Amino acid sequence: MVLDTACASSFCALHEAMGALRSGQCDTAIVVGVNMSLRATTQLQFYKLNMISPDGHCKCLDSDANGYAKGEACVALVLQRKGVAKRIYATVMHTKTNTDGFKELGITYPSTTSQATLMRETYSEAGVNPLDVKYVEAHCTGTQAGDPVEMAAIEAAMCTGRTEPLLIGALKSSIGHTEGSSGLCSLTKVIFSFEKQCIPANLHMTTPNPNIPGLVSGILKPITENTTFDSPLAGLNCFGFGGVNVHVIVRADSKQPADENRDIIVGQVPRLVMMCGRTEQTLQSALTHIVNNKTMLGRDFLALITDISKTSAYRTDTTGQWPAMARDLMHIEMCAHSLKSSANILNEYGIDLMTLTAIQIALVDVLEALNIKPDGIVGHSIGELVCAYADH
């Protein structure tokens, strides 16, 4: 599907992809935004509309804002349902669009009323209090027509009752306006900000635009220096000069850090690690890199191991045991300790029928120590006893 809603194109594509995922049309969607400046005449036409900055700088929210610098970009994002996603960078909580192309001022002028209405409806439908959002990555093109209108809409929709300034990001001050792909560029920046817990500074801002009341009052705070950020929510605003507005709410991925207790036994447990590559050379290169850079495999990498699909565990009856069963597991300290504890209890009664149960209990102990918790447990016969133990 190809969409063109001017500067809102990539976010409109994101909105359509979200709708397809939610309606069950697909489990995975690839959303791509591309902008390339191949014709000088296009640049000239925008310049005649007073949209292009003569000095090539996007002075977003600045008193000297005089248009934007054109940028080029190609951005692709993979959207998946959470249940099948293998590696999650962020969650798109909600997207919503509206349009206001028919205006007295003309199709190229944005509307404060329409944008504010869109934001209120987006947060209401998502069940998110706008006051819980500490950071908005704004469309901010660095024009005297667009910036004041957008900031007025953000202040009206998101700042009533706010006690601390709302952080305003403006990626276009750094990379220019990538037009049709600008929405996905902004989303990429937000994802990196979540990952690094730091929002990069807006550039080319020295004096706040006095025509923007929110900047004068301080309730809207442009990010003029790299800012530490650990809030899990962010809003993104985008609009096209044809009248389409889009607002997106994203939530940071809550990766579960590797458990501190893992280090105690992680070296004792053999693990099968699957890797893939298009060629043998690619695979060998990746493996060599890991072997030569062991110190780089820190907790962020280990956290990805826990980011797996739903798992289930089956506990069997007494029909599946054999001599020397689980002998190779005795070198795992946690497993050996659990088996010896069970043996001390059973020896007094001279019972060996429960050996398989003891082994399964030991395996439960090892998995728990590795912080591996199944989403469901099924047991047969005395395996139900192990289920009860695992569910304690």
How many structural domains can be distinguished in the coordinates? 2
Number of strands: 12
Number of helices: 13
**How much helical structure, as a percent, in the residues?**
25-40%
**Shape assignment:** elongated
Strand order of the largest sheet: 3-10-9-4-5-7
The top level CATH class name of the largest domain: Alpha Beta
Largest sheet: 6 strands, mixed
Q: Note the run of SSEs as H and E.
A: HEHEEHEHEHHEHEEEEHHHEHHEH
Query: Which regions are unreliable across 5 or more consecutive residues at pLDDT < 50?
Result: none
Corresponding CATH superfamily of the largest domain: Thiolase/Chalcone synthase
Task: Give me the Rg, rounded.
Answer: 28 Å
Could you walk me through the main structural features you see in this protein, from its secondary elements to its overall organization?
This is Fatty acid synthase. GO terms for molecular function: fatty acid synthase activity; hydrolase activity; oxidoreductase activity. Keywords: Fatty acid biosynthesis, Fatty acid metabolism, Hydrolase, Lipid biosynthesis, Lipid metabolism, Multifunctional enzyme, NAD, NADP, Oxidoreductase, Phosphopantetheine. By secondary structure, the protein is an alpha/beta fold. It has 2 domains: 9-252, Thiolase/Chalcone synthase (Peroxisomal Thiolase, Chain A, domain 1, 3-Layer(aba) Sandwich); 262-390, no CATH class. The chain is 35% helix and 16% strand. It has helices at residues 9-22, 40-48, 112-126, 146-158, 172-175, 182-196, 213-217, 262-265, 280-292, 299-305, 333-347, 355-369, 383-390; strands at 28-35, 73-80, 90-99, 135-137, 166-169, 198-199, 220-222, 227-228, 233-239, 244-252, 312-315, 376-379. The strands form 4 sheets. Strands 3-10-9-4-5-7 form a 6-stranded mixed beta sheet, sandwiched between helices. A hairpin with a 4-residue loop joins strand 9 (233-239) and strand 10 (244-252).
